Amino acid sequence: MxxxxxxxVLSAGAALALLGGLAGSDRLFxxxxxxLPIPPEVRADAAGEIALKAxxxxxxxxxxxxxxxxxxxxxxxxxxxxVRRGEKVTMSVTNGLTDDITMHWHGLKIPGHDxxxxxxxxxxxxxxxxxxxxxxxxxxxxxHPHFYPTTAEQVIMGLAGLFIIDDEESVALGLPSxxxxxxxxxxxxxxxxxxxxxxxxxxxxxxxxxxxxxxKMLVNGAHYPVAQTAQGWIRLRLLNGSNARGYRLALSxxxxxxxxxxxxGLLEAPVALKELMLAAGERYEILVDxxxxxxxxxxxxPVTQLGMNLPPFHEEVPLxxxxxxxxxxxxxxxxxxxxxxxxxxxxxxxxxxxxxDMLRDEEGMGAVKASGLMKMDMSGTFDTNVAAAVTKMxxxxxxxxxxxxxxxxxxxxxxFEMGVVPYGAALQKELRWKISxxxxxxxxxxxxHGCQYRIRSLDGKPPAPHMAGxxxxxxxxxGGSCEIQVRFDHPAAKETPFMAHxxxxxHEDSGMMTSFSxx
Length: 519
Ligand code: C2O
Ligand code: CU
Ligand code: CU
Description:
Structural class: alpha+beta
Bound molecules: CU-O-CU linkage, copper (II) ion
Strand content: 25-35%
Number of helices: 9
Oligomer: single chain
């Protein structure tokens, strides 16, 4: 469709909205908007197996533009794997691509050799078959490749999917649970496209500093889609599957919503919020009261994360429209959810520090400062020239050599290296770890494999109620730090250690990752 006819449709939609009293969010005709894709659920077959195949594909995200992609059992993204607590499931992961991959089960409490970290490479044409014993509460987890140092690129191409655990306790709560009807997965990703339709991706100074900065939003692989949902309580399973971008989520009519679960499972009680920060790799489940049947958008508002306020994100950006006009919903918002174990009083002293270091801090920040971006962000006034200058550095800044890329970032002063001797951590003991950052003050969502932990303090204060449950990824920024209570239930050998890293994938792929064995 030409720009002209697109504009006509836009104005026709606006006129109709005025005449017909359509919700303000319905700025376009429904026919002009894609339907929200709902990832198909896959459960173990009679043999207890789930087959996943990473494969090439192509997708039309915008009319008239074909984008080469990669997906799992499909052209872009993957299915929603569904397992139950107590189940033993064999994942059969086939690599139908021409590069090595791995498949990591983000959020799962499983041994290191099944974790899918950088040491579990699957060669092109190969199949990897880890058996996973699901021994943790209901949660919205996910999976994605973790090959070093190409995780960022493989996730951009579309390799990621949901991994949902159910249990009796969660089912008994009567939460909305009809998949795609009142239980809606939302995978948020920003992308930038080259002129030929392919995904933009380049490891340069801006990438290792700010991470991937897209200028278009995809939700479940569609741009600003529409979802028809039940009229009632709606559960949104939010996954920030972006490489770097953090979101400040709200609903367009500013109604409250209720957080019921964090990364690793349900909270003790719903937490009412009007805004929710969601950093890369994090998940939250929220319940929205849509009993009035009125349409609304999930939106993201400007954030303080450096580089993430370039257009269109200098203003509120709508992500997806929810139209609660299907059959009535039956799900409920309970007063109480689950009982979480109390934090341990006599936790030992910090046994592991994880300091996120940016080794090109001065160079990267110097360029960013010179562009005027920090000044612009701090003053809160948008400047087209600054935005254009920074965008130019993002898109045209010379690509790093692999050597320069791999020495750009670090944990505890050392850039990640394959084969390095991992740290050691005790098996089945409650531990105190401390996560912090060097001098850069940037946002680092720090993720640890093999566990679900509890935040004891974030920037010296108790965590906000919605962050007080099970977490595997915690955002630190502004010189902040976090103390966690963590326990590893499963061993990880030195040959297949667990990872701890920043989930800004460009930071991870440029050294901001470290490894540890358990037991
Ligand atoms: Cu989501 Cu180590 O990864
Ligand atoms: Cu992980
Ligand atoms: Cu980082």
